[in-house]
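subagent[fold] <- orchestrator: predict structure for attached chain, return tokens only, no commentary.
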Amino acid sequence: ASYTTKPMKLLDRLDRIVRPVVIPNLTVVIIVLQVVVFLFASGDAGLLKRAELTWSAVMAGEVWRLLTCIMIPPTLNPIFLLFALYLFHLMGSALEQTWGTVRYNLFFYLGYFLTIASAALSPNDPATGIFLQGSIFLAFATYFPRFELRLFFILPVQVRWLAYLQALGYGITIVAAPLSYKLMTIAALGNYIIFFSPLLWTKAMA
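subagent[fold] -> orchestrator:
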């Protein structure tokens, strides 16, 4: 019982810390920023490279990368981008309603700072917020495992099966991918583990 309560007490303390910098409808804000970057990137092939979080570049004065890394859209294909942002909005908004605005922001901020830490550990390799958005998907799937998605607006599939595939992909990335991808994956899983370790522990012990 003490194991399961410690993470919750930590989250309660962190809630009070982040409350002054909470952003309501954070998912919508990020989507708008990603759409703006997508539009500009369509006419500037080097924009995404300048937006990536490369720690050596940050230390050289390009501090904007600390923020622009989460503005990078997951794809430049407009059809796939529409689908990805639709899912992000659906899942992020559902989590904000479930947790409340403060705790949802905390989940995102934890993943964000862990991503920055991962970039600092591999200073010459670029990092983005794509894996961070993946952690939001895992969180949604944990709460709503039987939620049915229309994959590409056609194929019905329960979100838990997609989450299993993503978890498998993360495992392969941690084992086989270059160091920067390993670190980004671990960072993306870090906030998930902090939030859901009590639930996962309870299920494992049941």
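orchestrator: received. Logging for downstream: The chain has a mean pLDDT of 87. Residues 179-205 form the longest helix (27 residues).
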